[in-house]
Amino acid sequence: MDNPQKNIKKLYYSIGEVSKITELKQYVLRYWETEFKQLKPTKNKAGNRTYKQKDIDLIVQIKDLLYNQKFTIDGARNILSGENQLPKSSNIENDQPQDVNLDLLIKIRTELKSVLDDLNN
Question: CA-CA distances (angstroms) from residue 44 to 14, 26, 30, 32, 102?
């Protein structure tokens, strides 16, 4: 039988619940509050953090930037604040067709994988 609690959306989540949902330790969540000004969960009368769904969505986005896309904390902070926008065109793209750049990148990636394989053996 399905667990009905997994289908229920709550208005507020505790730090323990958010920790389980996001698969992050509680101390990581508390640390990220100090590093990302956008992450400010409210606190109840007892002083416990209460996270809303928007806070959880932000945490998932931060986790993706840091763990999957390999941004630094500063880089992720800039992305979230909108400061680190990639330019629409650069001189390299204007000088060469984009598919040539893609072929070059694929070749470099293949060579780097080969070097990594050699180092691991």
Answer: 10, 17, 16, 19, 52
Which helix (H) or strand (E) segment holds residue 49: the answer is strand 49-50
| pTM for this predicted structure | 0.62
Nearest Cα to 16, choosing from 26, 8, 29? Answer: 26
The answer to which of 22-26, 30-34, 93-97 has the lowest mean pLDDT is 93-97
Helix axes 73-81, 53-63, angle to 10 degrees: 130
Q: How far, CA to CA in Å, does 6 sit from each of 10, 21, 71, 81, 82?
A: 10, 10, 31, 32, 33
Place of tokens 């619940």: 17
Of residues 34, 41, 35, 46, the one with CA closest to residue 17: 41
